[in-house]
Amino acid sequence: MAKFAVTPGFSEGGTMFKPEQLVLLGSIIGDGSQVELTTFKQLYVEVQEDRMEEVKEKLQGIGLEIYPAGFVTKSLITCNFCRGAEDAGLHVAEELNKAIAGMETPSPLKIGYAGCALGTSEPLLKDIGIVKMKDAFDIYIGGDAKSLKPSFATLFLSNVSADKLISIVQGLVRYFQIHGKGKEKFSKFINRISLESLREAVSAA
């Protein structure tokens, strides 16, 4: 069996599957396949390996986005852009998602995006969290919700312009790719490397 991730993408209103997409998804993958609901707004679809490419193509044909499963950067986990597409930075979120989703990492990496300080996508509980603050962005790192002792992310950089945001986040992911240990959680990686070292590495990139 082969597994991959499926999302509807996101738009003003958030990440939402249309009912007809879910109906067609079931008919396309067929009997014997499995669908798993994840905590990062993706569906994991498991099908026979010899059908994977055919199924992917058909799902993309109904407007769904396909990403790898496993130890990769997950597709961007966003808010519902309730302040409107422009004010909440929908275009920036779309470009960021294209730039980072599916990058191989030592452990699965969740990146959250919030279009305002309300933070309804819970960016401070993600490995990397981006919060739009008027015309700039704050970047937080090291959130960890999956334990009996959850921890909030720490402010990494503030007042980051839109044109620098993607390169900084990519720099964080690449540094984790190179220096992270196998199956090491991002929060533990940060504690081992230190915030100062990460800031230096990203600013030098």
From TrEMBL:
Species in which this protein is naturally found: Paenibacillus gyeongsangnamensis
Domain of life, source organism: Bacteria
Pfam families hit by this protein: NIR_SIR
Keywords, in A-Z order: Iron, Iron-sulfur, Metal-binding
Name by which UniProt lists this protein: Nitrite reductase
Nitrite/sulphite reductase 4Fe-4S domain residues: 94-203
InterPro entries named among the record's database cross-references: NO2/SO3_Rdtase_4Fe4S_dom, NO2/SO3_Rdtase_4Fe4S_sf
Keyword Chloroplast appears in the UniProt entry: no
Keyword Iron in annotation: yes
Bilayer-spanning residue ranges: none
